[in-house]
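DM between two lab members

TW: hey, do you still have the Acylphosphatase entry open?
JB: yeah, one sec
JB: this one, 92 aa:
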Amino acid sequence: MAKICVHALISGRVQGVWFRHFTREQAETSALTGWVRNLPDGRVEALLCGEEKAVRHVEAWLSRGPELANVAEVASTDAEYNEELIGFEIID
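TW: and the structure you got?
JB:
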């Protein structure tokens, strides 16, 4: 199966609700690499890389997010696959 990366911008009530923590948990469970971070404008940004099926699974999860989140929109685009990424991290 092909390896891909997806860059996602998530808006709504997504900061202060453990969104980054649960995104990392979902990514690690799916063996993805990449990162997630809060943006100053209230959105969350993520880069998900790995097997296409796993990336699409976590990408779909972003639309729901954790229990306390209220996701309004996920704008995602394909990104160039980055073999140099190791693990999945929360960027502060």
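TW: got it. The chain has one domain: 3-91. The beta strands are 3-13, 33-38, 44-51, 70-79, 88-91.
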